[in-house]
Amino acid sequence: MEGTPLRPLPARPPGSIEPEDAFAHVAQRLPQLDATAAEALSLVTLAGHTRAEAAARLGIEQPALADPLTRARKALRRTLEPLPAGGWCERAERLVSDRIDGELTPRGEARLDAHLRSCERCVTHERRLIQAHDELVHSLAGLPAPGGPPPELRVLEPELPDSGRALAWYVLVALLVLLLVAAAVVGALVITGG
Questions:
Q1: Backbone phi and psi for residue 48, each to the nearest 5 degrees, phi listed first
Q2: Parent domain of 106
Q3: How many folded domains does the chain comprise?
Q4: Do residues 144 and 163 share a domain?
């Protein structure tokens, strides 16, 4: 998929976490978050519940769990970087949240990937969300925050063959030469006054 960047995979807690401990940790890290969103995030992200299990525990239908999870993940991402959003970007945030839990349909996957190819803001959202997610998981386990690139990346775009890379370099060099020649001609015209 051309233009789609590498996507980091979110960290998981090293062992089983009690739901009450997970909720207390999320509430401490995100005190402004409403209780439903905080509990949804703690159950799915830290306590390792499936969306179906978390929805049952919260007493809501499974599809309804997507909204509080998206709110919680947006609040989590905002701990690292605020990003303005509107329209399709708001929908893309929900699709990113669904993808994290393996709940994204093939149609949703295709729509999200198409959007990410043209929206650097949402690519940044996904990267920062995974980074904030990993920091939340590591802080619960008492580990230092991860630094540098995530160790596991999923490649979504094919590599150019060597001939394609070489052609791209030739085109780039040719454009650079043309720009230099054009600058020299303009400079000569300016100097000669004509």
A1: 75, 20
A2: 7-154
A3: 2
A4: no
- The answer to whether 5 and 123 have CB atoms below 8 angstroms apart is yes
Q: pLDDT digits over 4-34, tens only? A: 455 667 878 877 889 999 999 999 999 999 9
Closest CA relative to residue 85, chosen from 49, 44, 129: 129
* Per-position b or e across 78-92, b if 16+ CB within 10 A of its CB: beeeeeebeeeeebb
Q: What is the token pair recorded at 107?
A: 């149609």
Judge if 117 and 56 occupy the same domain. yes
Please indicate, yes or no, whether residues 93 and 183 belong to a single structural domain of this protein. no
Q: Is residue 176 within 8 Å of 169, Cβ to Cβ?
A: no
Pairwise CA distance, residues 69 & 43, whole Å: 10
- In this structure, the answer to whether residues 150 and 182 fall within a common structural domain is no
Rounded Cα–Cα distance for residues 169 and 161 (Å): 13
User: Is residue 111 a part of any domain in this protein?
Assistant: yes
What span, in angstroms and rounded, lies between the C-alpha atoms of 156 and 179?
34
pTM: 0.65
